[in-house]
Amino acid sequence: SQELEQSPQSLIVQEGKNLTINCTSSKTLYGLYWYKQKYGEGLIFLMMLQKGGEEKSHEKITAKLDEKKQQSSLHITASQPSHAGIYLCGADKGNTPLVFGKGTRLSVIA
Amino acid sequence: NAGVTQTPKFQVLKTGQSMTLQCAQDMNHEYMSWYRQDPGMGLRLIHYSVGAGITDQGEVPNGYNVSRSTTEDFPLRLLSAAPSQTSVYFCASSYSSGLNTIYFGEGSWLTVV
């Protein structure tokens, strides 16, 4: 079965610093989704990546899918308190619902 | 356009009680699914449906029952609640499989005492 490993499990960064979250799959990814979850709330869709080498950006968040389509990274530039939350990657298996990683908990301190 | 609506948002149950978490979507999506989220475990798939009348088990189906009599609704039933079912439950829907935007409900917080 598809397994997704996210690293790190948790991250504390100072406001203004850059950070990267990784999502590694044991199998080739058909597609990779990134979601953000604020504590105690639902999931917010960030980006979807499909093609090897694809890179997408939204505001200060950039996500990439590597050429071999087995790893994705989420990079936040100049972090802000509003970036705090849990970041989840989800893998598209083609014909069943997404399989998710365990999440990365991000805290941004002043 | 309401998207994916889950009810109730919060619920406390006693061990052994049964209840149904409701999920409805108004986007005419074929695919619907239920996940549970526990600390440090991410989201785990409970059951899913690829269309009305069709359901299948996910990773953690035990203790839960689903049915899909209409395209819009996908209720999740807890047959006899156990403390291990204390969790946050999310319903999701999408137009089809493959690379489509997947919409999530706002979650249902369930505590079993």
Descriptive notes:
The complex is a heterodimer of chains A (110) and B (113). With 110 residues, chain A is mainly β. Chain A contains no helices and 11 strands. In chain A, strands 2, 4, 5, 9, 10 and 11 form a 6-stranded mixed sheet that branches. The N and C termini of chain A lie far apart (41 Å). The model of chain A has no long low-confidence stretch (mean pLDDT 90). Chain B has 113 residues and is an all-beta fold. Helices cover 0% and strands 51% of the residues of chain B. Chain B is built from no helices and 11 strands. Chain B has strands at 4-7, 10-13, 19-25, 31-38, 42-51, 54-57, 64-66, 76-78, 87-94, 103-104, 108-112. In chain B, the strands form 2 sheets. In chain B, strands 2, 4, 5, 6, 9, 10 and 11 form a 7-stranded mixed sheet that branches. Chain B is globular, with a radius of gyration of 13 Å. The model of chain B has no long low-confidence stretch (mean pLDDT 93). Classes of the chains: A mainly beta (110), B mainly beta (113). At the A-B interface, strand 4, strand 5, strand 9 and strand 10 of A face strand 4, strand 5 and strand 10 of B.
